[in-house]
């Protein structure tokens, strides 16, 4: 069996804050995720608030304490789920004035398919998270492509190893509530509908990422065009031009359309402009929608 290597970053970092601020059009999601992680990772803050406003006790507090620290991020590809999960520890670390270790799962989280390997690697990921949380004080474990690990056990495609892996995953999630150092688990998926219901039920927060509407597209183009002479009216025009039967993703706007416009402006030694973006929009179609009916990865 191959060794499990989680990608580790200690937050806050300058890059993390820069990446967080560069995610436009999802302000409500950013705020909700920051608040929930702050609540999970700074246990004293809730106690202080309770003493200040509910010194005689609060029934809701018992529920809050028993809630598992699991957050599900779902939605179509290219809408910022992984990008946000990778940098969110920095604004949270700044909010609580404490360091946070963020551990991200590798692409080979399932391993090589050996008997018992999936369960062992899931257990190892949580063990590493607990060890690093104890050393640093608090941790966020990020599992991307969560449908690889948490496909519904009732699905016909789920064989014995998959079912065993889901059972182990649920056990590990349950045990997070008793962790000495606080740990938050963020699971990311493009196909929330295939996740095991027992995993979904354990989530304290579920956030759905959607392709940007006109208001969000305006915010993206406004950022892209900082440093140019683009007017607000021109930016609104770009937001309207990118209205499509199949919506553009955030990465379509930044990595495909804006990147093409930048490359052409650079090559022709011309300023980056609204005109260059319009030309790129005319050529680039939106990414296809994710087919949630696709079966689990084998």
Short description:
This protein is an alpha/beta fold and 298 residues long. The chain has 14 helices and six strands.
Molecular structure report:
The protein is α/β, with parallel strands linked by helices and 298 residues long. It contains 14 helices and 6 strands. It has helices at 14-21, 27-41, 43-53, 59-66, 81-87, 89-96, 117-136, 147-150, 160-175, 197-201, 214-224, 232-241, 250-267, 274-283, and strands at residues 7-11, 70-75, 100-104, 139-143, 183-189, 203-209. Strands 1-3-4-5-2-6 form a 6-stranded mixed sheet, with helices on both faces. The longest helix is centred in the middle third of the chain and has 20 residues, at 117-136. Mean pLDDT is 91; it is low at 293-298.
């Amino acid at each position: 069996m191959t060794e499990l290597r989680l990608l580790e970053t200690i937050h806050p970092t300058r890059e993390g804050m820069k990446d967080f601020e560069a995610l436009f059009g999802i302000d409500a999601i950013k705020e909700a995720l920051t608040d929930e992680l702050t609540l999970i990772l700074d246990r004293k803050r809730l106690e202080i608030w309770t003493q200040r406003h509910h010194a005689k006790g609060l029934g809701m507090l018992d529920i809050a304490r028993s809630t598992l620290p699991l957050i599900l991020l779902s939605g179509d590809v290219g809408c910022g789920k992984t990008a946000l999960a990778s940098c969110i520890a920095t604004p949270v670390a700044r909010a609580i004035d404490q360091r946070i270790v963020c551990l991200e799962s590798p692409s080979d989280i399932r391993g090589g398919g050996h008997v018992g390997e999936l369960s062992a690697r899931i257990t190892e990921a949580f063990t590493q998270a607990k060890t690093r949380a104890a050393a640093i004080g608090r941790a966020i474990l990020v599992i991307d492509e969560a449908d690889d690990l948490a496909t519904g056990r009732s699905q016909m495609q789920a064989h014995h190893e998959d079912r065993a892996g889901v059972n182990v995953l649920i056990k590990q999630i349950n045990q997070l509530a008793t962790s000495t150092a606080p740990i938050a688990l963020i699971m990311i998926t493009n196909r929330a509908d295939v996740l095991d219901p027992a995993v979904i039920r354990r989530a304290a927060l579920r956030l759905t990422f959607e392709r940007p509407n006109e208001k969000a597209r305006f915010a993206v183009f406004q950022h892209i065009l900082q440093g140019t002479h683009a007017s607000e009216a021109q930016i609104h025009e770009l937001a309207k031009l990118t209205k499509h039967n199949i919506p553009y993703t955030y990465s379509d706007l930044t990595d495909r359309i804006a990147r093409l416009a930048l490359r052409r402006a650079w090559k022709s030694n011309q300023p980056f402009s609204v005109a260059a973006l319009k030309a790129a929009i005319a050529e680039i179609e939106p990414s296809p929608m994710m087919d949630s009916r696709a079966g689990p990865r084998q």
